[in-house]
Amino acid sequence: MAFISFVGRVLFASVFILSAWQEFNEFGSDGGPAANLLAPKFLSFSKHVSTHTGFQVPHFEMKYAIAAAISVKAAGSLLFIFGSSIGAYLLLLHQLIVTPIVYDFYNYDADTKEFNLHFAKFAQNLALFGALLFFIGMKNSIPRRQLKKRSPKSKTL
């Protein structure tokens, strides 16, 4: 059973590892295509947040955000493979930040093809988020093994 669980964690984490590897290979000096895709979406998201909440999202360089995302995905995936809850929390943090920004279905009309595409990807990432929450919940619900206290052996003559 432990081997099957390990294989499941490897397959699940492969989504994040392959994504991080692709972004790392395409990074370049400006953050690569991921930064070019994320910059206008982040600007739109920050305007949306500031108009609805009044909170001003700080500006920062996209290549640093992409580098941080690559690092979080890679470290979280490796920790997750070995069954660490910290890895699951890192992947949760990544999903929580990236999903509503990249898959901004709320900026499109419901009749358009882009809306359907973004909404489907958003739902897939929501399912990954749920699977991570399930892993954390199961990890915390299983009692840890306690060492058995050895009873002292009686001396025999």
Descriptive overview:
It contains five helices and no strands. It starts with a helix and ends in a 16-residue tail after the last helix. Helix content is 72%, strand content 0%. The model has no long low-confidence stretch (mean pLDDT 88). Helix 2 packs across helix 3 and helix 4 packs antiparallel against helix 5. The protein is mainly alpha-helical. Pfam families: HR_lesion (PF05514). This is HR-like lesion-inducer.
Give the overall average pLDDT: 88
Tell me the span between the first and last alpha carbons. Answer: 46 Å
SS-derived structural category:
mainly alpha
Helix content: over 70%
Q: Quick one: overall form?
A: elongated
The proportion of residues in beta strands is under 5%
User: What would you report as the Rg, rounded to the nearest angstrom?
Assistant: 21 Å
What's the helix-strand series? Answer: HHHHH
Q: Give the strand tally.
A: 0
Q: Tell me about the largest β-sheet.
A: none
Number of helical regions: 5
Spans with pLDDT under 50 lasting ≥5 residues? Answer: none
Question: How do the helices and strands line up, and which of them pair or pack?
Answer:
Layout: H1 2-25, H2 32-53, H3 62-81, H4 85-102, H5 113-141
Please give a quick description of this structure:
The chain crosses the membrane at residues 126-142. By secondary structure, this protein is mostly helical.
Which key terms come to mind for this protein?
HR-like lesion-inducer, membrane, 157 residues, single chain, elongated, transmembrane helix
